Amino acid sequence: MTHPLGRLRHLRAPALRQGRYKSLIVEEDSHLGALLHYVHLNPVRAGMASVDALKDYRWSSYWYLFNKRMRPEFLDCTGALEGAGGLADTPKGREQYRNYLEWLSTDEAARKEMAFDKMCRGWALGTKDFKKALLEEAESDEKDDAESGAHKAIPRYDGKDLREANELRWEMFLEKGLSALDKDAKAIAADLKSADWKVTLAALLKKKTSATNVWISQKLNMGAPDAVSRYVSEFRRNEGDQNESYKELVTKVMT
Questions:
Q1: Cα–chain-centroid distance for residue 108?
Q2: Which residues contact 147 (CB under 8 A, 6 or more apart)?
Q3: Mean pLDDT, the chain, whole residue set
Q4: pLDDT the model gives residue 10
Q5: Residue 125: what are its φ and ψ, rounded to 5°?
Q6: 81: closest CA among 29, 125, 24, 37?
Q7: Which end of the chain is less crowded, N or C, counting CB atoms within 10 A of the terminal residue's CB?
Q8: Is the four-CA dihedral 161, 166, 167, 173 of positive or negative sign?
Q9: Domain layout of the chain by residue ranges
Q10: What local confidence, expressed as pLDDT, does residue 128 receive?
Protein backbone atom coordinates (compact mmCIF):
# COMPACT_ATOMS: atom_id res chain seq x y z
CA MET A 1 0.00 0.00 0.00
CA THR A 2 1.05 3.59 -0.51
CA HIS A 3 2.04 5.61 2.54
CA PRO A 4 2.93 9.32 2.95
CA LEU A 5 6.41 8.27 4.03
CA GLY A 6 6.99 6.06 1.04
CA ARG A 7 6.22 2.45 0.26
CA LEU A 8 5.88 0.32 3.35
CA ARG A 9 3.96 -2.64 4.66
CA HIS A 10 2.64 -3.73 8.04
CA LEU A 11 3.40 -7.43 8.46
CA ARG A 12 3.09 -9.91 11.26
CA ALA A 13 6.36 -11.79 11.52
CA PRO A 14 6.34 -14.43 14.26
CA ALA A 15 8.96 -17.02 14.91
CA LEU A 16 6.92 -20.22 15.07
CA ARG A 17 6.34 -21.45 18.63
CA GLN A 18 8.30 -18.48 19.98
CA GLY A 19 5.74 -16.26 21.62
CA ARG A 20 2.96 -14.00 20.43
CA TYR A 21 2.74 -12.24 17.10
CA LYS A 22 4.61 -8.96 16.69
CA SER A 23 3.60 -6.14 14.38
CA LEU A 24 6.37 -4.40 12.43
CA ILE A 25 6.42 -1.36 10.18
CA VAL A 26 8.55 -2.19 7.17
CA GLU A 27 10.22 0.03 4.59
CA GLU A 28 9.36 -1.77 1.40
CA ASP A 29 12.25 -0.79 -0.82
CA SER A 30 14.97 -1.70 1.65
CA HIS A 31 13.66 -4.47 3.92
CA LEU A 32 10.36 -5.96 2.76
CA GLY A 33 11.95 -8.63 0.58
CA ALA A 34 14.21 -9.84 3.39
CA LEU A 35 11.27 -10.00 5.80
CA LEU A 36 9.22 -12.04 3.34
CA HIS A 37 12.10 -14.50 2.91
CA TYR A 38 12.36 -14.73 6.70
CA VAL A 39 8.64 -15.46 7.07
CA HIS A 40 8.66 -18.03 4.27
CA LEU A 41 11.55 -19.85 5.96
CA ASN A 42 9.87 -19.91 9.38
CA PRO A 43 8.59 -23.51 8.94
CA VAL A 44 12.06 -24.60 7.79
CA ARG A 45 13.75 -23.12 10.86
CA ALA A 46 11.13 -24.71 13.07
CA GLY A 47 11.77 -28.13 11.51
CA MET A 48 8.20 -28.37 10.24
CA ALA A 49 9.00 -28.51 6.53
CA SER A 50 11.87 -28.56 4.07
CA VAL A 51 12.22 -25.89 1.42
CA ASP A 52 10.94 -28.39 -1.15
CA ALA A 53 7.88 -29.10 1.01
CA LEU A 54 6.99 -25.41 1.47
CA LYS A 55 4.80 -25.54 -1.64
CA ASP A 56 2.46 -27.82 0.32
CA TYR A 57 2.68 -25.87 3.58
CA ARG A 58 -0.81 -24.37 3.72
CA TRP A 59 -0.29 -21.74 6.44
CA SER A 60 2.02 -19.43 4.51
CA SER A 61 1.83 -16.93 1.67
CA TYR A 62 4.44 -19.12 -0.02
CA TRP A 63 1.62 -21.57 -0.84
CA TYR A 64 -0.24 -18.79 -2.66
CA LEU A 65 2.91 -17.87 -4.53
CA PHE A 66 2.84 -21.31 -6.13
CA ASN A 67 -0.97 -21.44 -6.43
CA LYS A 68 -1.57 -18.24 -8.35
CA ARG A 69 -5.22 -18.95 -9.18
CA MET A 70 -6.05 -19.29 -5.49
CA ARG A 71 -4.68 -15.89 -4.48
CA PRO A 72 -7.20 -13.43 -3.00
CA GLU A 73 -7.40 -10.11 -4.84
CA PHE A 74 -5.76 -8.26 -1.95
CA LEU A 75 -2.71 -10.56 -1.80
CA ASP A 76 0.37 -9.35 -3.66
CA CYS A 77 3.08 -12.03 -3.69
CA THR A 78 5.48 -10.20 -5.96
CA GLY A 79 7.44 -8.55 -3.11
CA ALA A 80 9.26 -11.79 -2.35
CA LEU A 81 10.12 -12.31 -6.01
CA GLU A 82 11.35 -8.73 -6.38
CA GLY A 83 13.41 -9.09 -3.20
CA ALA A 84 15.15 -12.15 -4.63
CA GLY A 85 16.58 -10.30 -7.61
CA GLY A 86 13.56 -9.09 -9.54
CA LEU A 87 12.22 -12.51 -10.44
CA ALA A 88 9.11 -12.79 -12.61
CA ASP A 89 5.79 -14.12 -11.33
CA THR A 90 6.00 -17.06 -13.73
CA PRO A 91 6.61 -20.78 -13.23
CA LYS A 92 10.29 -20.23 -14.01
CA GLY A 93 10.55 -17.23 -11.66
CA ARG A 94 8.82 -19.09 -8.85
CA GLU A 95 11.15 -22.06 -9.25
CA GLN A 96 14.11 -19.67 -9.15
CA TYR A 97 12.69 -18.29 -5.90
CA ARG A 98 12.52 -21.80 -4.46
CA ASN A 99 16.20 -22.23 -5.33
CA TYR A 100 16.93 -18.84 -3.77
CA LEU A 101 15.31 -19.87 -0.47
CA GLU A 102 17.22 -23.17 -0.56
CA TRP A 103 20.46 -21.21 -0.82
CA LEU A 104 19.40 -18.67 1.81
CA SER A 105 18.44 -21.39 4.30
CA THR A 106 22.03 -22.68 4.28
CA ASP A 107 23.97 -19.40 4.03
CA GLU A 108 24.35 -17.89 7.50
CA ALA A 109 26.31 -14.87 6.24
CA ALA A 110 23.54 -13.94 3.81
CA ARG A 111 20.89 -14.23 6.53
CA LYS A 112 22.99 -12.05 8.82
CA GLU A 113 23.40 -9.43 6.09
CA MET A 114 19.61 -9.37 5.69
CA ALA A 115 19.25 -8.85 9.47
CA PHE A 116 17.32 -12.07 10.07
CA ASP A 117 18.37 -11.87 13.72
CA LYS A 118 16.41 -8.60 14.07
CA MET A 119 13.19 -9.70 12.40
CA CYS A 120 11.43 -10.59 15.65
CA ARG A 121 12.82 -7.62 17.55
CA GLY A 122 12.47 -3.90 17.21
CA TRP A 123 9.55 -1.72 16.17
CA ALA A 124 10.42 -0.93 12.55
CA LEU A 125 12.62 -2.31 9.78
CA GLY A 126 14.19 0.25 7.51
CA THR A 127 16.73 3.02 7.18
CA LYS A 128 17.37 5.58 9.89
CA ASP A 129 15.64 8.28 7.82
CA PHE A 130 12.58 6.05 7.46
CA LYS A 131 12.40 5.51 11.23
CA LYS A 132 12.82 9.21 11.91
CA ALA A 133 9.95 9.95 9.53
CA LEU A 134 7.77 7.45 11.39
CA LEU A 135 8.56 9.12 14.71
CA GLU A 136 7.85 12.56 13.28
CA GLU A 137 4.51 11.33 11.96
CA ALA A 138 3.61 9.73 15.30
CA GLU A 139 4.52 12.89 17.21
CA SER A 140 2.56 15.03 14.76
CA ASP A 141 -0.47 12.76 15.22
CA GLU A 142 -0.06 13.03 18.99
CA LYS A 143 -0.08 16.84 18.80
CA ASP A 144 -3.13 16.83 16.52
CA ASP A 145 -4.96 14.45 18.87
CA ALA A 146 -4.12 16.61 21.87
CA GLU A 147 -5.51 19.68 20.12
CA SER A 148 -8.66 17.92 18.95
CA GLY A 149 -9.26 15.99 22.16
CA ALA A 150 -8.98 12.64 20.39
CA HIS A 151 -7.39 9.64 22.08
CA LYS A 152 -5.63 7.68 19.38
CA ALA A 153 -3.22 5.01 20.61
CA ILE A 154 0.34 6.33 20.19
CA PRO A 155 3.14 3.72 19.92
CA ARG A 156 5.08 3.21 23.16
CA TYR A 157 8.43 1.50 23.30
CA ASP A 158 10.50 -0.24 25.93
CA GLY A 159 13.91 -1.86 26.23
CA LYS A 160 16.05 -1.63 23.10
CA ASP A 161 13.13 -0.20 21.12
CA LEU A 162 12.87 2.67 23.58
CA ARG A 163 16.60 3.38 23.44
CA GLU A 164 16.61 3.42 19.66
CA ALA A 165 13.49 5.59 19.41
CA ASN A 166 14.88 8.01 21.99
CA GLU A 167 18.22 8.39 20.26
CA LEU A 168 16.50 8.96 16.92
CA ARG A 169 14.38 11.68 18.53
CA TRP A 170 17.49 13.27 20.01
CA GLU A 171 19.17 13.23 16.59
CA MET A 172 16.11 14.79 14.97
CA PHE A 173 16.06 17.52 17.61
CA LEU A 174 19.81 18.11 17.26
CA GLU A 175 19.54 18.34 13.47
CA LYS A 176 16.79 20.96 13.77
CA GLY A 177 18.87 22.91 16.29
CA LEU A 178 21.99 22.87 14.15
CA SER A 179 19.99 23.95 11.12
CA ALA A 180 18.39 26.81 13.08
CA LEU A 181 21.83 27.94 14.23
CA ASP A 182 23.36 27.47 10.77
CA LYS A 183 25.98 25.13 12.23
CA ASP A 184 27.42 21.89 10.93
CA ALA A 185 29.94 19.16 11.74
CA LYS A 186 32.86 21.49 10.91
CA ALA A 187 31.63 24.06 13.43
CA ILE A 188 31.14 21.35 16.05
CA ALA A 189 34.74 20.22 15.62
CA ALA A 190 36.30 23.68 15.31
CA ASP A 191 34.48 25.77 17.91
CA LEU A 192 35.25 25.80 21.63
CA LYS A 193 33.75 23.08 23.79
CA SER A 194 32.01 25.83 25.76
CA ALA A 195 30.97 27.92 22.73
CA ASP A 196 27.83 29.92 23.50
CA TRP A 197 25.82 28.29 20.74
CA LYS A 198 26.76 24.79 21.94
CA VAL A 199 25.71 25.60 25.49
CA THR A 200 22.45 27.13 24.27
CA LEU A 201 21.65 24.05 22.18
CA ALA A 202 22.69 21.71 24.99
CA ALA A 203 20.38 23.58 27.38
CA LEU A 204 17.49 23.14 24.95
CA LEU A 205 18.26 19.44 24.47
CA LYS A 206 18.36 18.94 28.24
CA LYS A 207 15.04 20.70 28.73
CA LYS A 208 13.05 19.32 25.81
CA THR A 209 14.43 15.77 25.50
CA SER A 210 15.83 12.99 27.64
CA ALA A 211 19.24 13.21 25.92
CA THR A 212 22.05 12.20 28.26
CA ASN A 213 25.16 14.24 29.05
CA VAL A 214 27.28 11.53 27.43
CA TRP A 215 25.31 11.72 24.18
CA ILE A 216 25.26 15.54 24.10
CA SER A 217 28.96 15.84 24.87
CA GLN A 218 29.82 13.42 22.07
CA LYS A 219 27.51 14.97 19.47
CA LEU A 220 28.51 18.58 20.23
CA ASN A 221 32.17 17.94 21.11
CA MET A 222 31.80 19.47 24.57
CA GLY A 223 34.43 17.44 26.40
CA ALA A 224 33.70 15.35 29.49
CA PRO A 225 29.99 14.55 30.10
CA ASP A 226 29.95 16.38 33.45
CA ALA A 227 31.05 19.52 31.62
CA VAL A 228 27.66 19.59 29.90
CA SER A 229 25.90 19.81 33.26
CA ARG A 230 28.31 22.50 34.42
CA TYR A 231 27.89 24.64 31.30
CA VAL A 232 24.10 24.26 31.27
CA SER A 233 23.76 24.95 35.00
CA GLU A 234 25.81 28.15 34.66
CA PHE A 235 23.72 29.18 31.65
CA ARG A 236 20.50 28.72 33.60
CA ARG A 237 21.83 30.60 36.63
CA ASN A 238 22.61 33.61 34.49
CA GLU A 239 19.83 34.17 31.95
CA GLY A 240 18.45 30.76 31.12
CA ASP A 241 15.03 30.85 29.45
CA GLN A 242 15.19 34.64 29.17
CA ASN A 243 18.28 34.55 26.97
CA GLU A 244 17.28 36.01 23.60
CA SER A 245 19.35 33.50 21.62
CA TYR A 246 17.75 30.67 23.56
CA LYS A 247 14.21 31.99 22.98
CA GLU A 248 14.90 32.41 19.28
CA LEU A 249 16.26 28.86 19.07
CA VAL A 250 13.20 27.46 20.88
CA THR A 251 10.91 29.21 18.40
CA LYS A 252 12.77 27.86 15.38
CA VAL A 253 13.11 24.30 16.66
CA MET A 254 9.69 23.83 18.21
CA THR A 255 7.62 25.17 15.30
A1: 24
A2: none
A3: 79
A4: 40
A5: -120, 120
A6: 37
A7: C
A8: positive
A9: 2-125, 157-254
A10: 72
